Amino acid sequence: MPVTLTVNDKEHTVDASPDTPLLWALRDYLELTGTKYGCGMALCGACTVHLDDQPVRSCVTPISAVGSRKVRTIEGLQSKEAQAVQAAWEKERVPQCGYCQSGQIMSATALLAGNANPSDEAINTAMAGNICRCATYVRIRQAIKEAAVSLKNA
Ligand code: FES
Ligand code: FES
């Protein structure tokens, strides 16, 4: 049964079963492959997207549960927080293999949009569900702090 999704500010009709995970609707139907599959069980964060600006695990979110909420993927991230995060990620050379990084950036961007000056504890809490097998955690935290400073000085 077709399901209508608003993704990156455009409406799409996806002809898939309502219980299809949002991750697969994005990757297989809309060819938005920046969102990654890791565990499929809400454990790793690789599949993180925003629903109405809140980070969610798209691997366990059926498309029937999205409703009118706006989906944003790494391909559609354009906010000032996203720009600051991207610049800090480049400056700190955060990614190694890169596989987890779109999920990390989605979580970091949502954190900064809701908390312009996050403490170490707030960063750790917000990012705890994003696993990085290359262990880039120290650089991720540094980049988030730099992004917060650049947003404050903007
Ligand atoms: S693939 Fe969704 S949390 Fe791991
Ligand atoms: S950069 Fe390789 S898994 Fe995170």
Q: Mind explaining what this structure looks like?
A:
Keywords: 2Fe-2S, Iron, Iron-sulfur, Metal-binding, Oxidoreductase. Pfam families: Fer2, Fer2_2. This is (2Fe-2S)-binding protein. Residues 1-77 form the 2Fe-2S ferredoxin-type domain. This protein is an alpha+beta fold. The model has no long low-confidence stretch (mean pLDDT 97). The longest helix has 16 residues, at 137-152. It is 38% helix and 15% strand. The protein has helices at residues 22-29, 80-91, 101-114, 120-127, 137-152, and strands at residues 2-7, 10-15, 48-51, 54-57, 70-72. Strands 2-1-5-3-4 form a 5-stranded mixed sheet, with helices on both faces. It is globular. It is built from 5 helices and 5 strands. The termini are far apart. The relative contact order is 0.16. It binds FE2/S2 (inorganic) cluster (2 copies). The site of one FE2/S2 (inorganic) cluster has 12 residues, from loops. One FE2/S2 (inorganic) cluster binds at residues 95-101, 132-134, 136.
